[in-house]
């Protein structure tokens, strides 16, 4: 079983099979009956959301990166953003970048003094296993994950937990400790302002995993409830929300993977996967929305909609999670100013300033020449993104009221630290090289970078 797992993992890393599309669905076709069987892919249709069930007043939102919790090493709101400074000895600090003062500081009430012990609210005793964030309107939520394969140990340095902080870093409260063999599954974190929602599973002694469960964790009391278990015959990811419901993507494999399959057979099995969107209520009720075939769509989720680039019939489309209708926003290939043609685009999971970000490789043989685009959802137009700095593309990390926080590579810092024996030392750390940019400057490729004061580090 472990041999098969290794083969599957290697193939997954080699094949970009994750978010893809299948056919164009019109508003008329979306009204047909939903066909849930993946054994008849030619008849896969989309179904509108039933309006017969009353909706609660609790609006559900994604509060992590749309790339998933493992991509949420930095999270922010309109005022600033949070990140973790990892130290070599296994501890760390929460850092905060304030857009108004243009400063990067420790998330602490102490401006000076030591920041590497329990007297400082930004200090993390352990970052072993990884620390990731989500953010509600009231709280910063820290997911400290377990160290892989430490099921026999429950030391504080290794054991995972979920904690909440006030936005200024005060009033830290551990909501729940993770069991030694418990893992937070990749995918997004959702919240209705009172609870967190995420997927988890447990690694058994024989190396196999339990079914994924949809978990509800109360932000005030820390009460933890299992809403339901998900099928082991598919992979599952929280990808978005619709009103008071959670959107989970299931990746279904119509071919059973066994140890006697060749590598080619396994690759073909992955190509036959079917992606399915399902709405989950907080009481565990489920409703299938739509399906598409592996390798034909790249999608992202925003404002109760799924936006996707169709790779078989090139174009950018908007699928309404409520009505089941699909609207074409842009049809055909993209042609750049230098004449390159693009029909194979990949959408970024996070949108900024009402723009969808896309990466494309031209249809010519120059496969190494990727181009970045932004699609303006107000104007329904594409524009090419060309900003680079220090030989790195300039990418948006977070969005404020007036600024983007952007990154171009990494920067080395000399940070005061403590050795394991308690001796004071200085450690060289690599952190994202970040600046602020006025939003219009970024969209117009104007390289006006606003420096951030990070002397406190």
Concise account of the structure shown:
Residues 1-26 form the signal peptide. The protein contains three helices and 34 strands.
Report on this structure.
With 457 residues, the chain is mainly beta. 6% of the residues lie in helices and 42% in strands. It has helices spanning 2-14, 263-271, 439-443; strands spanning 61-62, 74-76, 80-86, 92-98, 103-106, 123-124, 131-135, 139-144, 161-166, 173-177, 182-184, 190-191, 195-202, 213-218, 224-229, 234-242, 245-252, 274-280, 286-293, 297-302, 305-310, 315-320, 326-331, 334-335, 341-342, 345-347, 355-360, 371-376, 381-385, 388-389, 392-393, 395-399, 403-418, 424-438. A hairpin with a 5-residue loop joins strand 22 and strand 23. It is globular, with a radius of gyration of 23 Å. 33% of the residues are buried. Keywords: Signal. Residues 1-26 form the signal peptide.
The percentage helix is under 10%
State the helix count.
3
**Number of DSSP strand runs:** 34
Mean pLDDT: 83
| CA-based gyration radius | 23 Å
Which regions contain 5 or more consecutive residues with pLDDT less than 50? 1-57
Structural class based on helices, strands and sheet pairing: mainly beta
The geometry reads as globular
* Major sheet details: 6 strands, antiparallel
Report the portion of residues in β strands. Answer: 35-45%
Spatial gap, N to C terminus: 47 Å
């Amino acid at each position: 079983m472990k041999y098969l797992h290794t083969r599957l993992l290697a193939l997954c890393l080699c094949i970009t099979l994750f978010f893809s599309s299948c056919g164009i669905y019109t508003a008329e076709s979306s009204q047909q009956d939903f066909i849930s069987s993946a054994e008849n892919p030619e008849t896969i249709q989309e179904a509108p959301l039933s309006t017969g069930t009353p909706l609660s007043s609790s609006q559900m939102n994604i509060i992590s990166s749309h790339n998933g919790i493992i991509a949420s090493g930095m999270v922010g709101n309109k005022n600033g953003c949070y990140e973790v400074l990892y130290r070599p000895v296994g501890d760390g600090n929460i850092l905060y970048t304030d857009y108004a003062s243009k400063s990067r500081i420790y998330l602490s009430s102490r401006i000076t003094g030591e920041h590497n012990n329990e007297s400082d609210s930004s200090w993390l005793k352990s970052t072993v296993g990884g620390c990731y964030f989500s953010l509600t309107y009231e709280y910063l939520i820290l997911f400290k994950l377990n160290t892989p394969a430490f099921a026999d140990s429950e030391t504080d340095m290794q054991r995972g937990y979920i904690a909440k902080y006030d936005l200024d870093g005060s009033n830290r409260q551990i909501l729940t400790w993770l069991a030694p063999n418990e893992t937070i599954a990749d995918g997004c974190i959702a919240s209705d302002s009172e609870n967190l929602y995420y997927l988890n599973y447990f690694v058994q002694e024989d190396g196999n995993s339990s079914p994924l469960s949809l978990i509800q964790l109360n932000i005030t009391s820390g009460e933890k409830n299992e809403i339901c278990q998900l099928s082991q015959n598919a992979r599952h990811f929280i990808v978005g929300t619709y009103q008071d419901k959670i959107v989970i993507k299931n990746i279904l494999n119509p071919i059973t993977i066994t140890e006697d399959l060749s590598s080619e057979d396994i690759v073909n099995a992955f190509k036959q996967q079917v992606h399915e969107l399902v709405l989950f209520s907080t009481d565990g009720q489920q409703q299938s929305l739509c399906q598409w075939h592996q390798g034909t769509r790249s999608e992202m989720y925003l404002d109760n909609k799924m936006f996707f680039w169709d790779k078989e019939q090139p174009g950018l489309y908007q699928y309404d999670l409520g009505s089941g209708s699909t609207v074409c926003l842009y049809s055909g290939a993209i042609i750049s100013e230098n004449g390159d043609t693009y029909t194979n685009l990949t959408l970024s999971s996070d949108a900024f300033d009402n723009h969808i970000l896309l990466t494309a490789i031209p249809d010519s043989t120059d496969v190494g020449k990727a181009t970045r685009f932004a699609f303006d959802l107000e104007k329904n137009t594409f524009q090419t993104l060309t900003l680079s700095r220090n030989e790195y593309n300039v990418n948006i990390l977070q969005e404020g009221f007036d600024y983007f926080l952007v990154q171009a590579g990494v920067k080395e810092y000399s940070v005061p630290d403590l050795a394991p024996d308690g001796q004071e030392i200085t450690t060289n750390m690599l952190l994202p090289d970040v600046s602020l940019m006025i939003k219009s400057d970024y969209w117009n490729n104007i390289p006006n970078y606003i420096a951030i004061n990070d002397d406190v580090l």
